[in-house]
Structures are given as C-alpha cells and as structure tokens.
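thread: overnight batch results

M.L. [08:02]
morning all. the overnight job finished for the chain we discussed friday. pasting input first so we're all looking at the same thing
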Amino acid sequence: MATDISTPTQIGITHEYESKVVSNPASTSHWAHLEERGVYAGLVLMLWSFRMFGRRVFSWLLYLVIGYFFITDRRARNASHEFLSRVYEDSRGRMALGTQPGWRLSFKHFFCFGDAILDKLSAWTGGLDDRQIGS
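M.L. [08:03]
and the structure it wrote out:
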C-alpha cells in the first residue's frame, strides 16, 4: 500500500490521467467546497502540544483529531471514498493502493492530510534538518 495517498501524483498518476481521477472542482460535491470545521482553539492546542512534546505526541493526538473528523463528517468521508475509487479504476492507482477503497483506506487518506500539516509545522518551527527535506 502507498505511504501517501493525498494527491494523484503521489501515487504515480500523471497529469494526463488527472482529469479522470480528480473530481470537477466546479461541482458542489467537490471536497474543496466543504465548509471548514476546525476550531482556532483546537489548532492552538495542537501547536502547543507540538512545541511542548514534539512530533511523536502530536502524531498520537492527530489520530484522535482525524478520528473525530472522520467519524463526524460523512460528506468528507464520501468525497475521500469517491476520490480513492476513481484512483483505483486506473491500473497504476490499483497497484499503488493495493486494495479496493474502503473505510480504512479513507481514514489513511484523511490522516495523510493531517500528517502533511505536521510536516509543515516541523519545517516552520525548525524541526526538520536538511537531510529530512526532499526525502
């Protein structure tokens, strides 16, 4: 199974296939039209935990946060599942995903977005050194 499934290019799908994998952004069901559900206080708490306890503790807290959003946001779950299903239709997507999309793969998809935020926090706060960037 792929380690990062948040974008088509990360699973080897080139621009020529992107149009059949990525949904139409003009569509009202597209994930980009979903209302932001984060709470500023929660973001501050997560940043504080990252600064105080580091990446490992933040990662564990991230599972709880992602789990909450995964459980409570049916539209986002459906958008994730639809995206992964379109990826799976392509032979390279099928090979990269390794399994037919289901709730576990959708949760991993959600978590990839959260993990990308963790990488950004690490970079912004000087938590990454040159060896970790670009690998």
